[in-house]
Amino acid sequence: MKDKVLALYKFIAQILIIFSVTMLFITFNGIIAGESAKEYSTMFSLGNKGVSFDTILQILLSSVVVSLINQVFFSEKLFKNMMMLWKIILMIIFIIAAIVIFTIYFKWFPINLAEAWIGFFISFGGFFLVSTVIMITKTKREAKKYEELLENYKKKHSKEEDNINESN
For residue 33, which of 20, 21, 43, 22 has the smallest C-alpha distance? Predict the structure, then answer.
């Protein structure tokens, strides 16, 4: 039960992190280019004045979908024998497909506007690069922590064995 609650907490935290970072990015883009983009983008329908409630909920929904995709690909149940590289590649493909579907369905920007798609892929690449660096850093830090715990366990276990051997 505790594990399920912790997993749900982590899932919600992941959704909120993705949502927050995305909203900050949209906010900065809106401040810079919102007025010119409001003519063709529902995402910037208010120009540089803000983001509509509809768009906020769309971004929240997209954050949930991205988190679900992430959850599926990093699930030990479904893809336990797949190489990590392939998991990441497939996850990226599914995330891009989901975002493209959201973009087309919610008319975030016109599908025939090359500059918008270039901006999207540059932004996605930047997000992916930053999140990869964070994930690698976190993994290395956790690996170091576990390595230290293992060393401490080995030392403690070794001392206990020495004490048992001395008693005999």
Answer: 43
CB 102, CB 108: distance < 8 Å: yes
Question: Within a 13 Å sphere around the CA of 140, how many CA atoms are in the beta-carbon half?
Answer: 6
Name the DSSP class of 108: S
- Name the residue among 68, 75, 85, 88 with its Cα closest to residue 18: 68
| 84 token code pair | 């990590």
pLDDT in single tens digits along all 168 residues of the chain: 788 888 889 899 989 988 998 898 888 888 988 888 888 888 889 988 989 999 999 999 999 999 999 888 887 777 777 887 788 888 889 998 999 999 999 988 888 888 888 878 887 777 777 777 777 788 788 888 888 888 888 888 776 666 666 665
Q: How many CB atoms lie within 10 A of CB 13?
A: 11
Six-digit token string for 105 = 């369905």
With residues binned 3-state (H G I as helix, E B as strand, rest as coil), the percentages for the chain, rounded to 5, are 80, 0, 20
What DSSP line would sit under 121-139, residue for residue? HHHHHHHHHHHHHHHHHHH
Sign of CA dihedral 142, 146, 149, 155: negative
The reported pTM is: 0.75
